[in-house]
Amino acid sequence: MCGIVGYAGKSNGVIPVLEGLSRLEYRGYDSSGISTKVENDLSVYKKEGKLENLRTHIKDLNLTSNLCIGHTRWATHGAVNDTNAHPHGNEIFSIVHNGIIENANILREDLKSKGYNFNSETDTEVFLWSITDLYKKTNDIEKSIIETFKKVDGNSAFVIMNKENNKMYSIKRSAPLVCGLNSNSNETYMSSDPYALVGFADKIYFPEDGILCIADYTSLTNVLKFKNLDGSTSKDYKVQDNTMEMESVTKGGYDHFMLKEIFEQPGLIRKLTQLYLSDDGVKDLNNFEKFSSKNYIHLAACGTALHAGYVIKNFIERETKIKVGTDFASEFRYRKPNISKDDLGLFISQSGETADTLACQQMCKDEQLYTLSIVNVNGSTLFRECDKNLLIHAGVEIGVASTKAFTQQVLVGLLLSKALASNIDKDVLLKEFNTLASRVEDVLSRKDEIKNIARAIYNKKGFIFTGRGEQYPIALEGALKLKEIAYVHAEGYAAGELKHGPISLIDEDMVNVAIITPDLYDKTYSNAQEVKARKGILVSVGEVNNKELENDSDYYFGIDFDGLVHTKPVITNVVLQLLSYHIAKIKGTDIDKPRNLAKSVTVE
Ligand code: AGP
User: Fold this and answer.
1) Residue 476 CB–ligand 1 contact under 6 Å
2) What confidence tier does 246 reach under pLDDT thresholds 50, 70, 90?
3) In terms of domains, do 174 and 307 share one?
4) Mean pLDDT across the chain, nearest whole number?
5) Is the distance from the beta carbon of residue 302 to the nearest atom of ligand 1 less than 6 Å?
6) What backbone phi and psi angles, to 5 degrees, belong to 206?
7) Which single residue of 72, 214, 219, 425 could bond 29 by disulfide (Cβ 3.0 to 4.6 Å)?
8) Coil, helix or strand for 134?
């Protein structure tokens, strides 16, 4: 949700911090700010609204600072305004924060009783005044941060700078935070997302929770230090090369990141195929055979990831005798599910930082379940907390509306289901995956057909997406995409459910996007005809050269499913991705950063 970027080095940190914040805009935010240090003076500049407002606010100031921390805020505590924006600072410290301090009210009252006054409504300011209070007593910055960190409850990441020295500090608990190093210039960075550091830091450090990170660019020995809460040196971090390419930062000639990511899918399918269906890849997958004796898999996720989970449930239950329970993570975590330590927990997430999904994983971990993720971000909290992970290798997904991640999640889930069934026929899967990549390319090459359908229906009153069996999750996903980026009301429904109520919505201003594949064709086709009989507008997505569908639908998009035994949901979904994209484009919404949405929902 919130974005954090910090710099400490011999150059002007304002530049990389502002660039890093602009890269994090995709995560969703409603205000932004930076703090600088010039000699011994700390300054804070922050504005409500888009980052452009901040840039305008500081453009004539020619800010130069070797220490700079910046933040994009997605409001949790306190209104959206300049005062509540981060950084929060006083004469000694400036801080930025991502997450929630759950015991902020108690701590605030205690600090008020000591005479401290609060300027904002945020929980973050509690951390600021607490470290300030302790520093005045101890004159020890590290101790003040650590002792305050021990006092605050909740998932949080903090980055701190101070007027006394040229060091930047960070510490976190179950919230994303990395340190970066430019190993040539010894410039140091801290961020909530490695993506912000592409092109700046060639090394990325992933500290564990409760590790105090200290960036001291003036040090002649070690510009990044890591300490445990007892002050001892810590090795509790992982470090890796920052392998993200600069090209991931640009739209690559597409009008939107979302469109770029839709078009990346054929290449990503092939990349996934090479990684997972290589000899080593198959060997790794076969390690999952040990779970084939599991009776029950608890699958929890949110949004698009859960829709992928529904498809994966079908795969696993079709391939094995294992029962798969799927649930919204936000429901699973509170409904006291019957879980046994012999079950398997399976969590699906693009970001690996979704609070509800993380809470479910933690709940299962506490009950001693083996936990497995299907995740995109290597090093994310979910990745680090799970016993084993299946990475989807989708690359950075900037568009808030998830597209390529869905495709990769479903395919990895298919491979998992085959592994659980000890039924990985490498040649068969290679053939299907490569066929799928080519067929997705075919669909993408016919984008104008989809654009024309979008043009015909974009201003209709409402949309019901329908599908049966493995296509029901795709109906849900198609509806979610349209809601997210076009701001129109859309519902996903099991096709057989229409007559149990929703069909009353059908009239000449309602669109039914019906996915009608060869599976359960007759029943699904007749559902669509029920819509036509009531003057509904029927957009059917089905098999190529199906004259019946073509004649009986208002709009028809045919797909060659030949050779796609398991992966038809992936390709029908690509059609719906493009349909939603083009409807949104005609409506002129902010497709990459839709209103009210964040790319990663790190709060409940
Ligand atoms: C999908 O388009 C949405 N952005 C949203 O539903 C998303 O899938 C959900 O928040 C889960 O995110 P995650 O995959 O990062 O956990």
Assistant:
1) no
2) low
3) no
4) 95
5) yes
6) -110, 90
7) 72
8) helix
319 & 299 share domain: yes
- pLDDT-derived band at 352 (thresholds 50, 70, 90) equals very high
Distance 406 CA to ligand 1 centre (A): 9
Q: Is the CB of 573 under 6 A from ligand 1?
A: no
Catalytic residue ranges? 2, 599
State whether the beta carbon of 304 lies less than 6 angstroms from ligand 1: yes
Cα separation of 584 and 256, whole Å? 11
Query: What's the gap in Å between 333 CA and the centre of ligand 1?
Result: 17
8 Å CB contact between 339 and 367: yes
In the listed set 230, 248, 266, which residue is the last one of a domain according to the structure?
A: 248
- The Cα–Cα gap between 415 and 421 comes to 10
Candidates 473, 487, 307, 499; CA nearest to 405 is 307
Q: Whole-prediction pTM value?
A: 0.79
Per the structure, the count of domains in the chain is 3
Ligand 1 atom at minimal distance to the Cα of residue 351: 15
- CB of 303 shorter than 6 A to ligand 1: yes
CA 324 to ligand 1 centroid distance, Å:
21
Residue 133's domain comprises 3-248
> Above 80 in pLDDT, residue 547?
yes
Q: Atom 6 in ligand 1: which residue has the minimum CA distance?
A: 303
Contact assessment for residue 528 and residue 538, using Cβ atoms and an 8 Å cutoff: yes
Cβ of 351 below 6 Å from ligand 1: yes
Q: How far is ligand 1, taken at its centre, from the CA of residue 303, in Å?
A: 5
Q: Could you tell me if 35 and 113 lie in one domain?
A: yes
Q: Are residues 362 and 223 in the same domain?
A: no
Q: Judge if 188 and 268 occupy the same domain.
A: no
**Any idea what the CATH number is for the domain that residue 88 is in?**
3.60.20.10
* 71 and 148, same domain (yes or no): yes
pLDDT in tens, 13-51: 999 999 999 988 877 788 999 999 998 999 999 999 999
> Do 181 and 154 have their domain in common?
yes
Does the structure show a pLDDT above 90 at 175? Answer: no
Question: What does the pLDDT read at residue 357?
Answer: 97
CA 139 to CA 334: how far, in whole Å? 44
Same domain as 242, residue 263: no
User: Which residue, by CA, sits nearest to atom 5 of ligand 1?
Assistant: 303
Whole-number percent of the chain with pLDDT over 90: 88
CA-closest candidate to residue 92, choices 67, 38, 128, 126: 128
Q: What is the CATH number of the domain that holds 586?
A: 3.40.50.10490
